[in-house]
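Aim 2 progress update. The chain analyzed this quarter is reproduced below.
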Amino acid sequence: MNHETFFENLELLADAPNVVQKLREMILQLAVQGKLVPHNQNDKQALIQLENLKIEKKRLIKENKIRKSKTSPIKPEEIPFQIPDNWEWVKIGEAMNLINGRAFKPVEWTSSGLPIIRIQNLNNPEAPFNFCDFEVDEKFHVRNSDFLISWSGTPGTSFGAFIWNRGHAILNQHIFRADLFGEEYNNDYLKFAINSRLDEMIAQAHGAVGLKHITKGKLENLILPLPPFEEQKRIVAKVDQLMALCDQLEARQHEKHEKRILLNNAALDKLLTAPTPGEFAQHWQRICDNFDLLYDAPETVGQLRQAILQLAVQGKLVAQDEGDEPASVLLEEINNEKEQLIKDKKISKVKLFPPIKENEISYKLPDKWMWVRLGDALLKITDGTHHSPPNGPKGEFKYITAKNIKSKGINLSNITYVSAKVHEEIYNRCDPEPGNILYIKDGATTGIVTINDLNEQFSMLSSVALLKNPSKIYNRYLLYVLKSPYFYSLMRDDMSGVAITRVTLTKLNRALIPLAPFEEQKRIVAKVDQLMALCDELEAGLVQAQTDGGKLMEAVVHYVLAE
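Predicted structure tokens:
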């Protein structure tokens, strides 16, 4: 398959992951390898152009207009790929003179004057300028069509070549202005050539992980292909044509994705507004039958999971059973259980919470359900210690914080420990047992909730709340209620804290939850588990499709580049 055949059949790979980005990279590689346009033997040989570069550089050095660069002869091991016979290799330092920008201090920035070109102004046209209102050496001035190379910053976002087109400005440090020796390079082609070698630039850069620099000497010794000048112009025209094709493909992908979002939202809305379990089943089946039309990436399945949880807490997921004991009777049984535990001194008596007002109710529940305050429904709601105790890699009892709480259980990969004495003080107040609910109530991960799956005592920090459910509230039903969009939104509303957001125990206690009959709770959990398993299968299918598409795209690109 040659590259022309590849681009003619581009639609076949349109759904591969990052297809447009990979296409753009491949186009640049084909361009600088001499595989994008036909060669013309009548073109002036690049060897002559290379000699012209050397002659011009010698003249400028002799006239003391530039300094001699420290470039070494090109070694065979430096050549990254084969180029056509009538092309040549040239080092950047033999093709241009690099002039670094001025090292402006922040105190020198002004609100008016000539704009100062910083790295963010190259990468983001919307980035604001700082200005300079005093006289600066002419060598730091930049005008339209000047060639710039960013040589410092974050790999993947900062390095690269640019053609300046935003008017008269002043150059900041960390950016070179490249003054070309003569007219042997087309600026647009040169930009492609340098940007196709960014990996090499970054590999030679030094510095910290987040901020790297490539020295002037290393950049001057980076080699670039030099095609005949007329071929450079043909390459630029072809690249522009193919990049426009990429733009069209990207636009079609975006339009297709937007349409899928609209279809998906409409389908989910019908699920959420289904008045009966029977109608819900019909709409659910319609989603399953048209899954490939509604979802195009694994992450989009998350919306479906959220819709399932919302339906669960609305009482629309399973059919109601006339024989079920109503939630009002259930609440009486819960109160009896709490009174007995208080008598046995296993839990403490808590104050009564205010009656539920009509304006607190978010939606209508089925007849046998009822709204209850979380603090009235549960045996205990508390949190861990409010004073972080001494903890480390060794100790008698595990010390659990928000970082250990994950949706599928407690993660012990970065666990620390506390002493028996410290644990006893914490556990007297906050005593998590297997099957209890653990809810992150402080920080960025607030709302993550799980069931305690550890068969041992442990201590907790106050960033995690402990919720003990009575025997008549199924812990997995409570888990799904707390995971639902309804409850997440309820807790996030007016969440306290500025630097660290948090949900207070008072807010948790007063929060309303929908209480279903106990037998229906079990049916809801079974149905949610079944539908979530189906979501897992659908998600896995999308992941596999993406993986296969990515591998196919990589293989085709490798084949086309290797030709």
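The first strand starts at residue 88 and ends at 91. The first helix runs from residue 3 to 8. These observations will guide the mutagenesis experiments scheduled for the next reporting period.
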